[in-house]
Amino acid sequence: MVKIIECPRDAMQGISGFIDTAIKAAYINQLLEVGFDTIDFGSFVSPKAVPQMRDTEEVLSLLDLHHSKSKLLAIVANLRGAEDAMLFPEIDFLGFPLSVSETFQKRNTNASIQEALITVEEIQNRCEVAGKTMVVYLSMGFGNPYGDPYSAELVAEFVQKLNQLGIKIISLSDTVGVATPELITELFSVQVNAFPQIEFGAHLHSRPEKIEEKVSAALLGGCLRFDGALQGFGGCPMAEDDLVGNLPTESLIEFLESRGQQLELNKAELAEAMKLIPFVFNP
């Protein structure tokens, strides 16, 4: 069955005005009622780097997890953030942004790829002890605008390294919305077949008219895990295109169900979540 990871953290983090903590928590609590597999709810990173996420710990304390089947994922960018996240038993997954682009890795985590790989190994070792699962996002997984080396073979090399570290979930990320359907299908089909023990996800950014062809291509390649954000909020600021945002979850759901996927989501609760969006993302 296809898994949908709803990403309010990704949707909120680029909003310049600070969203009230109580509003964040109320929105995420409503998302928890929908039945998504996982909620990417916050991040343990420097408040200077991402001011919007400075209240993640407080938001977590306000979440009602008792009647939800959804799991929680928090993003971390270094070992210190990971250790902070591991203090909370409510958090199931720790997500780490690893890039195949040296330029973007330095911009995103202020570290080289080699340094980031060492950090991945350290966090993975601690996750195994703490009973957490690490999710590695391969940023710039479909190409980059910096002129850094890129190829499908390079992506395969990264996956091989992560497999050797015991990583069980890898999300291929189209950070700036450059992926073609052909490349999406190729990358997923090759990796899914080569590493059946790894769960591969798609974190795709897209212009609205390209959404269905990209999701269809990922399905064709064997991807069964998709990230989305209601109404497509979020995306990479470096894309320099307001239309290249996250996959709108409502569009993702509609398309997947049209392809016969049984998602087992509570549509009434989803409608209530949609009603809250103007109050959350009001500039």
What is the topology?
Layout (H helix, E strand, L loop, with lengths): L2 E4 L1 H5 L8 H12 L5 E7 L11 H6 L9 E6 L2 H7 L5 E9 L2 H8 L3 H18 L2 E7 L12 H13 L4 E6 L6 H14 L4 E8 L4 H10 L4 E4 L16 E2 L2 H10 L8 H14 L3
Parallel strand pairs: 1-2, 1-8, 2-3, 3-4, 4-5, 5-6, 6-7
Antiparallel strand pairs: 7-9
Helix pairs in contact: 2-11, 7-8, 8-9
CATH evolutionary superfamily: Aldolase class I
Give the helix level as a range of percent. Answer: 40-55%
How large, in whole angstroms, is the Cα Rg? 17 Å
Look at the structure and give the CATH class: Alpha Beta
- CATH architecture call: Alpha-Beta Barrel
Coarse structural class: alpha/beta
Number of domains: 1
Shape: globular
Q: How many DSSP-defined strands?
A: 9
Overall mean pLDDT stands at 94
Distance between the first and last residues' Cα: 36 Å
What ranges have pLDDT less than 50 throughout 5 or more consecutive residues? 237-241
Major sheet strand order: 8-1-2-3-4-5-6-7-9
N-to-C SSE series? EHHEHEHEHHEHEHEHEEHH
Characterize the main sheet.
Answer: 9 strands, mixed
CATH third-level topology: TIM Barrel
Q: Assess the beta-strand content as a share of residues.
A: 15-25%
The number of helices is: 11
